[in-house]
Amino acid sequence: MPSRDTCTPERWTAILIVISTGVRLLLAALVPPLGDETYHWYMGTRFHLSYDHPPLTYWLAAVGYCLAPNGGFLFPRLPFVVLFSCSTWLVFLVSRSAFGGMAGFYAALLFNSAPYFFIGAGVAALPEGPLTFSWLLCIWILMRLFFNLSSTGPMYRWLGLGIAFGLAFLSKYHAVFIPMGAGLFVMTDPAARKVVKGVGPVLALAAAVVVALPVIIWNYGHGWMSFSEFFHRGLTVRELHPGDAANNLAGQALLLMPWIWALLVWHLARGLMSRPRSSTTVFLSLMAVGPLVLFTAASAINGEWYQCHWPIVGYVSLFTLAGAALAGATGCVVARTKWFAVFCVTTMAGVAGCILLYATTPLSGPVSALIPGLAPAHSMVRNYDLSGYAGLDDDLLHQGVLMRTNLFVCAGNYMDCGRLAWSLRDRLPVLCVARWDEAKGFLFLPMASGWPGADALLVSRDFDVTSDLELAQPFFSRTKPAGSVTVGHGAHRTTLELHLLEGMSRPFPSFSAPVRSWEP
Questions:
Q1: Of 380, 359, 358, nearest to 463 (Cα)?
Q2: How far apart are the first and last CA of the chain?
């Protein structure tokens, strides 16, 4: 770890960002895309104001792809790699402004040692990247508004806050917790209540609405469906299972590394309960409370304990408190602090190395055979399959399928459709034959319903064949098997079953129909 005498915290943080960016670029280049990522890329290349989720992730993946359409999935991921480098610098700025430069360095180092942020937000084409960046940007501007009162230009800061909040809203609806945390702080701090008087908050709200207009306009034209889906999925009461909240917390700990998670939770508790407390500590703690408490508690009633990534953006502000604690160590604790930091970095490097090894392994055999008990977990296999459907285009070209007219390709869920689209790259239309929760944005594409007389090539995994055929067959006159094909490489190979569906007799439902309840 750096000595206070040999280098400035700013320089060490810059070095950390350069090294981190290099490792994440390597991961982005070598790890095949997940189904969610290919879905975001494909929808982004079909520009809409918004989608079933806010649009910024889709747009960024499409912009990166446009830089090099033949450059592999590194380029759809590139904007997310760059954004995370900016997020690391924002962690440093927030922590330095509150507790000094070394606190900023240690906070940035811990931030880069948490797999959820380093990989989920820093590599993958997922909403976590832009959400984390805009969340941190909001925190940084709010701290300058609340705690740097002598500076000039407060209206510019309010304007910047509105733009940052609008970007957060374009990233993920978790953005609603930003004004919630700030509002809790304003209610508990008299000095903060003086800051929010005047036209500043109105200016911020107006700017946020302008930036978020694409989401608002799209939802207005689609029955506010993505808003209602967000609240319906998160707050639906099914059965009370307190143990699910414990499972959710365990998942959070694994995504952050248990030792980092424990450190962050400890400082959250201290920030809320210890006396005396600085206003900065209270602010950073309250910014974490909303998503951590609500989503963890909701997992006990909505049956979705496995969505343990939902609350994790709330931990962002706690890295500052943890970094300040490490930087403030004295006496014999200093050596332990440095060893702890080294341990965090080493374990994250080990995780990154294992992922690279796993993604590039020359071993043969399906991925489900490598991990006992994984094969029956269909949704897990589907989500984390790294075959990318590589080679499917060559097989279909060899069979003459790509030369056919009046044909589209389809699958029974949005992730597999995304992989099909990435493999085929617009050589055939890709549609999704599924209900709303599995089709998502494919329902809103042009010709999403197919066309009369069309033929379709249904592509299914072995465990999806029966259900996919049940969904698709009622819309066609004839169905016949078309063989199977093995795609991917090394350990990441998947066998796909093909069926040719001939003579489309009626269209798939699209958004113009009651998509949440249709049955074939």
A1: 380
A2: 62
Q: Can you read off the two tokens belonging to residue 237? A: 């009461």
Residue 44 and residue 135 in contact, taking contact as beta carbons nearer than 8 Å:
no
Read off the pLDDT of residues 314-367 as tens digits, 9 standing for 90 and up.
999 999 999 999 998 877 788 889 999 999 999 999 999 988 888 877 654 444
| Partner residues linked to 489 by β-bridges | 492
**Percentage of the chain surpassing pLDDT 90?**
65
Look at residue 347 in the predicted model and tell me its pLDDT. Answer: 96
Q: What's the CA dihedral at 93, 97, 99, 105 to 10 degrees?
A: 20
The closest of 363, 378, 233 to 299, measured between CA atoms, is: 233
Q: DSSP 3-state assignment of 361?
A: coil
Distance CA 358, CA 490 (A): 10
Measure CA 226 to chain center: 16
Q: What is d(CA 331, CA 433) in angstroms, rounded to the nearest whole number?
A: 64
DSSP structural state of residue 499: E
Measuring CA to CA, how many Å separate 359 from each of 1, 32, 87, 491? Answer: 31, 7, 26, 8
Q: Which two tokens stand for residue 306?
A: 């496995």
Q: Which residues contact 26 (CB under 8 A, 6 or more apart)?
A: 356
pLDDT tens across 107-145, in order? Answer: 999 999 999 999 999 999 999 999 999 999 999 999 999
Pick left, alpha or beta for residue 425 (phi over 0 → left; psi -120 to 50 → alpha; otherwise beta). left
For the CA atoms of the chain, what is the radius of gyration?
24
Neighbour tally for 122: CB within 10 Å: 30
Listed by start position, the domains of the chain span: 9-354, 383-504
Q: What is the mean pLDDT of residues 98-114?
A: 97
Contact in structure between 125 and 57 (CB atoms under 8 Å): yes
pLDDT tens digits, 390-435? 889 889 988 888 888 899 999 999 999 999 999 999 899 999 987 7
Largest CA distance in the chain: 79
Over range 222-226, report the average pLDDT.
84
Amino acid at 472: A
User: Concatenated DSSP letters for 153-171?
Assistant: -HHHHHHHHHHHHHHHHHH
Q: Could you tell me if 49 and 215 are in contact, meaning their C-beta atoms sit under 8 angstroms apart?
A: yes
pLDDT computed for residue 372 by the predictor = 46
- CB neighbour class for 478 (10 Å; exposed up to 12, middle 13-18, buried from 19): exposed
What's the rounded Cα separation, in Å, for the pair 251 and 352?
Answer: 19
Three-state DSSP class for residue 52: coil
Instruction: Please check the confidence at residue 303 and state whether its pLDDT lies above 80.
Output: no
How many helices (H) and strands (E) in the chain? Answer: 23, 5
